[in-house]
Amino acid sequence: MTKKLIIPVLLLLIAQFAHAQRFDAGILAGFNASQVEGDSFKGYHKPGILAGFFVQTDVAPAIFTGLEIKFSQKGARKKIKPKDPEPEKYIMRLNYVDVPVFAGFRTSDRGAVVAGASFGYLISGREFDEYGEFVPEDQNEFNNFDLQPFIGFQFDMLDNLKLDLRGALSVLPIRGQPGDNATSYYWLNNQFNNVISLAFYYRFDR
After folding, report:
1. What is the DSSP letter of 41?
2. Is 71 exposed, middle or buried (0-12, 13-18, 19+ CB in 10 A)?
3. What is the pTM of this model?
4. pLDDT by residue (tens digit) across 135-166?
C-alpha cells in the first residue's frame, strides 16, 4: 500500500511545487555587435538584431534563473578604410536560433549580474565579398551547433522594463579555419563567435 502511494504523492508534491512557483515571462529585442575569432578582421564590426521571449523565476531572495528563445544575427565584417589603396569587402552573415539558460544574482534593488550558456542552432550562413555572395565551392562549411558561455549585467529601468548587456564567446567552433592549416591547436585551428549584445526585456504583467 505504501509503495502504491509513493508515486501519487510525489506527483501531487511536484504539482503543488510547480503551482507555487511564480514565473515571469516577456519579450526581448536588441542588437548584437559581433566578430569571429580566428579570422583576420578584428573588431566588433558586424551588427545584427536579436529578438525573442524569456521566462524566469526566483529561487532565493537575491537569486533567479531563466531561459530564453531568440533569433540572433552574428558574423564578421571587414571595416573598409577610405585610405586603403585597394579596399576589399567581406561580410559573414550567420543567423541562429539561440536558447540561453542562465542564473542571476541581484546586486541591488535595480541591478543584477547574470551568467549562463547559450545553445545555438545555425539557420543560415553566408559570405560576401566585393563580387557578391560566395559560390558553394568557395565557402568553407559552417557547423550547425554553437555553444557560448556568457556573462552580463541587467538594470531595471522601470518595473516592467530592464536593460541587458552581455558578452559571449563560443567554445564550440563555428567551423575550421578555411584552407590548409598545419596547426592542431584548438583555438588556432578553428573559428569562434565573439558577441556583445544589448537588449531590452519587457515583462508581461502578472
Report:
1. -
2. middle
3. 0.84
4. 877 788 999 999 999 999 999 999 899 999 99
